[in-house]
């Protein structure tokens, strides 16, 4: 028997305060309510400010360091201020701090990037020399690789800020993850969804993860029924790939695993930040070998890239 949370002793859910983060925290709450037949009042949402939210005027990679969106939330989890933390898995470092574990994932949503523009329908539709706004090293490198004629400018902020910048003519187009747009109820903001063959998504894009304290058996039992096994297998491959590449926001890396039955197919790519070079590959294997597959693909790409690839 699990000791269930209740209105007098609610489960504290830690999250960032952005509309997307709140939606995701409420989605985890909704899944837990349904799995255990609990009322909303059995949960408390605790909003935590993180470094990445406080600094809005710089490209994130200038601030440096991993876990810009997670450090303060993980501290609250470790000191007992919250019981679980809800994250966009795409933003999560590949290793968790000692004492925490991240092994519960909701079913993954659309993995694709969305093409957002007031004037053009797709990347192919962009005229020569068009201006594209993005602060994602991966998207910038992927675009520069395919369309060296385009001009790239830094672009940050929430969806509304970015749309305003498009209206002001700061850029002709930008990219946003389809998962985020769909969760915010505005998928139509994207003129088109970009196929993975054209722009391979970030590892773990579109997946929501729930972090907890190691040894918190009560919370582990609560989370068990909301975990989506196939998403777990896909992320095991993608995050092992990223971990072996020592992935951080400093390195343009893309990776996507797909599962069919007991088989897993992993595609990955590493790019030079200026888009002048790319090394890509794929591996197929048994789902049980998901992590080994990720490591093997990473090592193959590193060997092909050779030393100095990122210099
Ligand atoms: N880096 C920010 C971030 N983290 C997660 C999402 C979208 C939701 C997701 O991919 O799960 C976004 C916005 C974006 O890249 O457009």
UniProtKB/TrEMBL annotation:
Query: Where do the Porphobilinogen deaminase N-terminal domain residues begin and end?
Result: 11-219
According to the UniProt entry, its GO molecular function terms are:
hydroxymethylbilane synthase activity
For this chain's record, the cofactor binding note is: Binds 1 dipyrromethane group covalently.
Could you tell me the keywords of this UniProt record?
A: Porphyrin biosynthesis, Transferase
PROSITE patterns noted in UniProt: PORPHOBILINOGEN_DEAM (PS00533)
Q: Which reaction does it catalyse?
A: 4 porphobilinogen + H2O = hydroxymethylbilane + 4 NH4(+)
Which residues are recorded as modified (S-(dipyrrolylmethanemethyl)cysteine)?
249
Tagged with keyword Transferase: yes
Purpose of the protein: Tetrapolymerization of the monopyrrole PBG into the hydroxymethylbilane pre-uroporphyrinogen in several discrete steps.
State the family it belongs to: Belongs to the HMBS family.
Q: What else is known?
A: The porphobilinogen subunits are added to the dipyrromethane group.
What is the protein named?
Answer: Porphobilinogen deaminase
